[in-house]
Amino acid sequence: MIEISIPGVEEKTKNTKDLIFNILILEHPLSMIELTKKIRKSYNLSITYQAVRKAVNSLTFHKILSKKNKKYELNKEWILKLKNLFDKFLLEYEGGKKAYIFTQNQANEDYAIYTFNNLFDLDNFWGDVMRQWANNTKFNEPKETVGVFHYSFWFLINLGRETEMFHQFTKKGIKMYMISFNDFPLNRWGVKTYNELGIKSRVKRDDESKEGMDITIMGDTIIQVNYPSEIISKLRNFYKKYKNPQEMNLKEIAEIVHEPCEIKFMIFKNPAIAKNLREKYKRLLR
After folding, report:
1. Which of 115, 202, 239, 269 could form a disulfide with 110 if both were Cys (CB 3.0 to 4.6 A apart)?
2. What is the pTM of this model?
3. Minimum mean pLDDT among 12-21, 46-55, 126-135, 252-261: which range?
């Protein structure tokens, strides 16, 4: 079992918080009485109900735990924030690659750039960002996403994760649109899958589009991903080679998505630009 320590003011209180945290990792939601019993049984401790209540109230106050129907579990928003923090640490130290992260507040514009070392890490982070946006949309923000891509590599490596995410978007009433600018059989399969998921999608030839750049618009937020030419070349050759997912070599696509490279992920918030881009790309779906 993984043991995690949460910083606390008093050592005794801190240890109680640690026990609660580790119990809730394995089983949740639990009431205070259930937590007290499980701590006593799992750790063979004669801990008091009052000590558990004090620690639970502190963790809830700091939004580490959430409460529903007198039961407690780890706060998913806190978990996601913690994951994003460790993602930044990993980007900073993994393989000597530095993540260029900064923020500007200019006329309602928030701006940041991340650097990734391969397509697989990029896709996992991309999905996390989209989930976080979907869970925190503002009441006056358009509940729409528009994706513009050239190679639907994420469907080839994370099909289950992708479909689950878009099912959640549908439940939240988010309208979704997708456009592929490369007419390859694997992209047509990706577009067909998107349409089956309720996402309005099509392949649209556009010789002026930049093959090394994909775009996602989520409400007022824009994501722009820039790929190195070497990875684009390998994806192009792979997509030219295979006609459907059944034919493709899984080892080959796995090697491509883990190929060391430098990918730039830029995200910024600007309602006016997002609106113009949404309208521009949605017109191509008519």
Report:
1. 269
2. 0.61
3. 12-21
